[in-house]
Amino acid sequence: MRLPEIFLREMKELLGEEYDAWLNTYDAPGYRGLRVNTTKISPKAFRELSAFSMEPVPWTGNGFYLEGEERASRHPYYAAGLYYLQEPSAMTPAACLPIEEGDRVLDLCAAPGGKATELAARLHGTGVLVANDISNSRAKALLKNLELFGAGNILVTSETPERLCRYFEGWFDKILIDAPCSGEGMFRKEPVMVKDWEEHGPSYYATIQKEIVTWAAKLLKPGGLLVYSTCTFSPQENEETLNYLKGLEGGFRLLPLPLPVPAAKLGFQPGKQGCAEAGRLYPHHIHGEGHFVALLQKGSAENRGTGDGKTSVSGTRASKALKLPEEWLAFAKDLKLSWDPARFRLYDGRLYLLPDPLLNQNIRGLRFLRTGLYLGEVKQKRFEPSQALAMFLRREDFTRTVDLTVSDERVLRYLKGETLDVEDRISAKEKGWCLVCLDGFPLGWGKLAGGTLKNKYYPGWRW
């Protein structure tokens, strides 16, 4: 492939005698990756369930290299939210942000959701993940991926960091910034990025990155942790941005990356310019594309760490609970879960379940796509449950279920929106809403009558 001469000269200066080994990787194929959704299934159980050929990615406990030619994006298990397809190096930033239950977490540049889905899974339904992308169209794809993963404790926004700071200054325990960059590390995987590099280059993105980290520093509480990452090799976009961040008010210090084994054993190279704790990922040292990742802690008077001021798992309560619609209460009789009424909100007939940390948080005027778990809609004296609720539930959480096996041709027919005969799976006497599952994992809703399942799979997700 054609690479810009200026870029090659800069890489030769950066790599020295390793330059030829790095350049030779452009003649080799890249690597595909799959990350298991631990909210729904353990990595061990997924390997036993799946027929994919996979080998572990050594820097994350739930990531795998996909071998062979399987079209994993068209497998029904993908529709069940059991995994996310992600380039192996790109799994590193989320793996390096230590998440604890109850944390308030911000993914500042989150679309399309590869890192946000992992952060949400590691919260285990507690705290809140604010997933933001300044592009509204990209934020829509982000929302779909989070809902596909079954995430409910979310706030999906489409704002500038400056606007977010008006609502959340000093509010977050953890922040991940996978910053927009010149994409040098992805040229092998996405050659089209070379053209963007020629039009803009590192200097253009370095300015944007400094603006982003300036606001992120204000959004993070004292003692909080921040991961900064890019998919570029340029020191101007990496170490220079880190050193700028370290000089901001509040004081940031670099921490060693919390990896399963020492970074050097994984093939990660240390950062430059006094940022040795950061990790540089080069394709001639690892099985993956180029990446950069660093973990920093914001200073405080007592260097408190991450727990001070954190919302507890139980959280705070709004002073007045919503009077729940009768339609929801009738539907919820088949739901084997219960939630504090203070967490419910009703907007224009649409019912939501808010995360605890947002109960008393003013977000009026904030541009968001989703606040919490969208439960469904009250319509003409009936309640229609949402696709998001189906993906959030487990099979055992609902009274009526139809469970299909992956080899059953009805699975693909369901995903295409067809009506199904399911009398062999559930009594013909059963009526009403039914949770449709694949090998025990929810896919969506249907309505039963006389052994026939009327398809209620969300039209926007149909195959």
Question: How would you characterize the overall build of this protein?
Answer:
- Belongs to the class I-like SAM-binding methyltransferase superfamily. RsmB/NOP family.
- GO terms for molecular function: RNA binding; RNA methyltransferase activity.
- S-adenosyl-L-methionine binds at residues 109-115, 133, 178.
- The chain has 2 domains: 88-392, Vaccinia Virus protein VP39 (Rossmann fold); 395-463, Archaeosine Trna-guanine Transglycosylase, Chain: A, domain 4 (Roll).
- Helix 10 packs parallel to helix 11.
- It has helices at 5-15, 19-24, 43-49, 76-79, 92-95, 114-123, 136-148, 161-168, 193-199, 202-219, 239-246, 263-266, 326-332, 387-392, 410-415, and strands spanning 32-36, 53-56, 63-67, 83-85, 104-107, 128-132, 154-157, 172-178, 220-230, 252-255, 269-270, 279-281, 291-298, 344-347, 350-353, 368-371, 373-379, 382-385, 401-404, 420-421, 432-438, 441-449, 452-455.
- It is an alpha+beta fold.
- Helices cover 26% and strands 25% of the residues.
- Strands 5, 6, 7, 8, 9, 10, 11, 12, 13 and 16 form a 10-stranded mixed β-sheet that branches.
- The chain is globular.
- The protein contains 15 helices and 23 strands.
- Helix 7 links the parallel strand 6 and strand 7 (154-157).
- Residues 303-319 have low confidence and may be disordered.
Describe this structure in a few short sentences:
With 463 residues, the chain is an alpha+beta fold. It has 15 helices and 23 strands.
Q: Which CATH class of the largest domain is shown?
A: Alpha Beta
Question: How many runs of DSSP E, i.e. beta strands?
Answer: 23
As residue ranges, the low-confidence spans are 303-319
CATH topology call of the largest domain: Rossmann fold
Shape: globular
Global structural class:
alpha+beta
Total number of helices: 15
- Domain unit count: 2
Beta-strand residue fraction? 15-25%
CATH architecture field of the largest domain:
3-Layer(aba) Sandwich
Mean pLDDT: 94
Query: CATH superfamily of the largest domain, called what?
Result: Vaccinia Virus protein VP39
Distance between the termini: 34 Å
Helix amount: 25-40%
The Cα radius of gyration reads 23 Å
Biggest sheet features:
10 strands, mixed
